[in-house]
Amino acid sequence: MVPYHLSLDYNLHPGWMTPFVEGLQAGLAVARRCAACAQTAFPPQRICACGEADGAWITLTGDAIITFRTEGADGAFALVVFAGADTSAVVRLTGLASDQTRGTLHASDTGLTLGPFPKAPL
To answer: How far is Cα 22 from Cα 59, in angstroms, rounded to an integer?
Structure first.
C-alpha cells in the first residue's frame, strides 16, 4: 500500500437550516417551533416528534442550563437545555468554572459554545 494525501475542498449549503446557521454565526440561538404541537427544538428538527413538518423560526435568549458536563483532552462539553426550548443540545464550554450550571450562547466558528453570562452594563 502506498500512502497518498488527498485534499478535498468543498462547501455545504445549509439549505432549510439557513436561519439556524446564520444565527450561530451571529451568536444567536435560533430555534424552530412546531406549527402543530408548539414544541420548540434547538437545534432545529426538520420533522417534529409529532410528525409535523411546518414550523416557525424563533430567536431564544441564548441562556442555557447545564444538565450534564464532561471534561476531556479536547475540552469541556455539556448537554444543555436552552431557555424556551423543549430539546437538549451538546455544546463546548468556554470560560465556565466547573461548578457553574448556567451560561449563554456565544458566536463560534466551531459550533455551539456556551460561556459565562455577559457582564451587565454599568
So the answer is: 12
